[in-house]
Task: structure prediction
Amino acid sequence: MPMNAADIEHLIKQALPDAEISITDLAGDGDHYAAHVVSKEFAGKTRVAQHKLVFDALGGRMGGELHALALTTAAPK
Amino acid sequence: MSNPVHDRIKSMIDAHDVVLFMKGTPSFPQCGFSATVAKILDHIGAEVHGVNVLADPDIRNGIKDFTNWPTIPQLYVKGEFVGGCDIVREMFESGELKTFLKDKGVELDAAA
Result:
């Protein structure tokens, strides 16, 4: 069952309450999104560690229910 | 308790400077994300040892546990996990990838 943008945002916000999240639906099929996530939790972390925080927030849906999420992350400037 | 699949993965990433676990092969990628990473590495002149996870289901699943990373492709340089498609593209676009590879002592084809 594909996910909608609001579900993705909700899950990420639960794990990263301060996060600013912008989600773009790339294909309109609930399966291909781009997400940019900004959170102070990312400060000082490698990109891999940052992305893993988001994957953990998505609770194992990444690569399964959520086939393709083009993810970029950043700490607040 | 050793994990034979993880041991196989370890030997692959230790045997080659640049290892790309992907769907398909560098010359015939079978997924857009894998193709993107293969193209980026070709563009900057890095010789890539491709591992086609579609031809090896044990590796396809084992690699996700090995790295605790849920998707394919996965890029390793000198035994270190660098990232998937998003991270490699971001590093490439910022110019960081070439510097990273050089710093790691990876030979890049000058003609690229």
Summary: Helices of chain A lie at 5-15, 47-57. Chain A has one domain: 5-74. The longest strand of chain A covers residues 32-38. The CA atoms of residues 42 and 75 of chain A lie 5 Å apart.
